[in-house]
Design goal:
The protein is mainly alpha-helical. The protein has one domain. It is built from two helices and two strands, in the order αβαβ. It is rod-shaped, with a radius of gyration of 25 Å. Keywords: Membrane, Transmembrane, Transmembrane helix.
Length: about 70
């Protein structure tokens, strides 16, 4: 009887772990997609360092080197 209880408890715990892992994998994929979209958005600006201070073009300003 004790073996049956332990087996059922083990199966329940394993099932719950599988659900948790499935949820975490989904969250990780969504987070990676958000980072990819955030980091791929930029505007390239041709200016010197002093000229770029006043520009607001998006998330990232990438000045050309002289």
């Amino acid at each position: 009887m004790e073996i049956t209880i332990n087996t059922v408890a083990g199966l329940c715990i394993g099932f719950l772990q599988a659900i948790i892992i499935f949820i975490l994998v989904g969250i990780k994929k969504d987070q990676a997609d958000i980072w990819k979209r955030t980091n791929s958005h930029y505007h390239e600006v041709a200016c010197g360092a002093a000229e770029c201070k006043g520009l607001k073009t998006g998330n990232v300003i990438i000045p050309h080197g002289d």
